[in-house]
Amino acid sequence: MSLADSDRELIEDELGRALTQAEATLFENLWSEHCAYRSSRPLLSAFESEGDQVVVGPGDDAAVVALDDSTYITMGIESHNHPSYVDPFDGAATGVGGIVRDTLSMGAYPIALTDSLYFGDFDREHSRYLFEGVVEGISHYGNCIGVPTVGGSVDFHPDYEGNPLVNVACVGLLDADRLVTAEAQEPGNKLVLVGNGTGRDGLGGASFASEDLSEDAETEDRPAVQVGDPYTEKLLIEANEVLVEEGLVESARDLGAAGLGGASSELVAKGGLGAHIELERVHQREPNMNALEILLAESQERMCYEVREENVDRVREVAERFDLGCSVIGEVTDGDYVCTFDGEEVVAVDAEYLGEGAPMNDLPHEEPTVPETDLPEADLPEAFEAVVGSPTTASKRWVYRQYDHEVGNRTSVRPGDDAALVAVREAGQGLALSAGSDPLWTECAPFDGARAVALENATNIAAKGATPLAAVDCLNGGNPEKPDVYGGFKGIVDGLAEMCADLSVPVVGGNVSLYNDSPSGPIPPTPTLMMVGTKEGYEAPPMHAAPEGDLLLVGDRTLSAGDEFRLGGSEYLARIGGSDAFPELPTNPAEFVGTLADVADADHVAAVHDVSHGGLAVALAEMVHADAGLSVELPENGGIKPRAEQTGLLFHEQPGRALVQTTDPDAVREAFEGVAPVEHIGSGTRDGALDLAVSWTDLRYDADDVADLRRVIDREMT
To answer: Which residue from 87, 148, 314, 550 has the least number of CB within 10 angstroms?
Structure first.
């Protein structure tokens, strides 16, 4: 990829001269879709990002949200999609490293990671190869740096075969007086590079992420993938902690996309300032590097700090203590962004123009069509086993057992539940985290599917008794120059923004990844959301059933009012075939989520579980275990008899539903009166089996049978 002729002409008219090679490559990367958001920024104003709890919103390395007057958290998310296709281990590992350094640059200490992963059909060997490498890369890096991976999601869909998605989010913790931003403060302050030596890896990574993957990407694009060193990252984490604690950092930015050129120019541009950088001063790990390589390499485990001159020696001492390289590479100025190499000026441009001057794209879009209704007749036991045993809805234990999710001694609710719960003892609060999307939903109905993604993440948090606080998003799409693809992308942006606003959840930051397109076609529009919520204390109701207590289904209007089933976007149709419109969403989502959070914390509640992917069939299967089963009888839907309709009771995926097991069902009904319907559908048992009666069919699966259905990933990957 090279700088477009139209961009070159625009820039040279602005500068009044020809570009140097270094400038052209720097503009190519910083004006790429990956950095400048040229096709997506016009849409992002739909998001509401303000709130009393928001300290730092979009635009910095990570967002900052207040838990109380003195305790803040950071939230960030990023994609490493193209690199993870070319090199799944290093591509995913360096995605973890990058989002952790975004956390460090705000003065925070990383306390939790989530990963949302999307691959092609699980039956394909190449998909499993990518899956295995990505999980290994995430686990290796996260385990080595001592940051727990506490949650996330894994989806398999044939349209990710040529372009998997790896979306990683990080939460950090800091005191209010430790906050650092990426806004340069004062001319005369020094720019100090701390961390790994600069090599030639990752050259052109930002521009590589801004183009479709080719058939030979796994070989030709290998030099654009960074190589991570988690042991150096761990040292950098601890060194950063000392630097921030001692007040030695005026501003900071991690070196990610476009390397030193990206980090240093963005740092000074945000402060309305400039810089003078001497590239030969950068500590290097490869010989004979030229100016362009030093400026643009995306070597990992590096931070750029703005430091007062009188503090430089102490920063060097801290770096040496942790065996990290340290270079004073230049200083902040009130002029242009200037880089020299061996006395020769190779870059001299206005930093703000470099970072913000890219023209936005005005692209045509086509509205997605609504699928026709074509529901198959299906054998109920066969359908149940196909959906519960689908790799997408099956147990992800093979994944999260490779992650150290307890390091740091904060994880209260572990992976595999609706949401993780992390203890923030500094504020006396539990922090619930939920992350993921559903490509079947957003493929079927981009706008409503994205609304459902936001509601489902909020429901996951409420199921742990927590109230949603804030969210960050990773908006993944195909080639935006295709009107149908851009129409779907616009739909997920608007849908996510609308539901988050309805829930009063500010979207405080995020990432956009476009051009996720390959010879096999574009990915489904995929709006990964990482949402956090808070509650008093660190305990939460489990998702697993208790041997006693009534089982209530909350929020299902198809049972209470005989509403029409809509199976669009369901795992059932993905497995059995057919098509349908997407289900309607509740009109009062905030009331539902708030009430569920209150009910979940009641003493009479034994278990709470979100009903979403795979519908009621999967939710019930996930609740049973060796020590407790469920006896369930589903009533007919408004007297409708056809089997396709009755099958829909188990498999439709209407958002905004939950299963609540309680010893006081009247209290639950009273709490949800006027908010959502409540139906008694069964009770807990001591036999560890799922007994299920649906109109004309009785099903029975003991805990071992259910576990065997849900073990499909373990069987194939071990």
So the answer is: 314
Tokens 């919520």 belong to residue: 533
Q: 275, 335, 338, 284: which is closest to 23 by C-alpha? A: 338
Q: Are 680 and 665 in contact (CB under 8 A)?
A: yes
The span from the CA of 375 to the CA of 384, in Å, is 16
Dihedral angle of Cα 324, 328, 333, 335, to the nearest 10 degrees: -100
The order of strands in the sheet holding 420-424 is 411-413, 420-424, 429-436, 526-536, 467-476, 507-513
CA distance 700 to 340: 74
Residues 6+ apart with CB under 8 A from 123: none
Contact 96, 142 (CB under 8 A): yes
Q: Give the residue among 601, 570, 387, 600 at the shortest CA–CA distance from 610.
A: 600
Annotation says 34 is catalytic: yes
What's at 108, amino acid-wise? A
CA angle 480/483/488 to nearest 5° reads 75
Decide: 279 and 328 in contact? Cβ < 8 Å: no
C-alpha angle with apex 632: 626 to 637, nearest 5 degrees?
150
Three-state secondary structure of 508-534: EEEEEECCCEECCEECCCEEEEEEEEE
30 Cβ contact list (under 8 Å, min separation 6):
36, 206, 258, 261, 262, 265, 354, 355, 358
Could you give the CA distance from residue 545 to residue 659 in angstroms, rounded to a whole number? 10
Active-site annotation holder among 80, 140, 276, 613? 80
| Beta strand segments in 34-85, E | 54-56, 63-66, 71-79
* 239/328 Cα distance (integer angstroms): 16
Distance CA 58, CA 687 (A): 51
Cβ-Cβ contacts under 8 Å for 369 (sequence gap 6 or more):
none
- With H, G, I as helix, E, B as strand and everything else as coil, classify residue 276: strand
| Residue tagged active-site, from 34, 82, 609, 652 | 34
The whole-angstrom distance between residue 678's C-alpha and the CA centroid of its chain comes to 32
Separation CA 687–CA 691 (nearest Å): 10
Which residues of 296-450 form beta strands (DSSP E)? 302-307, 325-333, 337-341, 344-349, 411-413, 420-424, 429-436
579 secondary structure, DSSP code: B
Angstrom CA distances, 115 to 118, 235, 645, 709, stand at 10, 23, 36, 24
Please enumerate in sequence order all residues whose Cβ is within 8 A of that of 57, keeping only pairs 6 or more positions apart, or say none: 49, 50, 63, 506, 508, 509
Separation CA 118–CA 121 (nearest Å): 10
Q: How many Cβ atoms are within 10 Å of 322's Cβ, its own excluded?
A: 19
Q: What is the mean pLDDT of each run of 10 residues along the chain (718 residues)?
A: 89 96 94 92 96 96 97 97 93 95 98 97 97 97 96 97 96 97 97 96 59 54 71 97 98 94 96 97 95 94 98 98 98 98 97 95 93 89 96 97 90 93 97 98 98 98 98 97 97 98 98 93 97 96 97 88 82 96 96 98 97 97 97 70 65 96 98 97 96 88 97 95
Q: Please, are residues 163 and 516 in contact by the beta-carbon 8 Å criterion?
A: yes
CB 421 within 8 A of CB 414: no
Return the residue matching tokens 């939230």. 75
pTM: 0.95
User: If we measure between CA atoms, which residue out of 581, 685, 572 comes closest to residue 626?
Assistant: 685
Distances 275 to 332, 630, 700 between C-alpha atoms, Å = 4, 66, 70
Residue 640 has what pLDDT? 43
What span, in angstroms and rounded, lies between the C-alpha atoms of 581 and 566? 6
- Is 140 an active-site residue? no
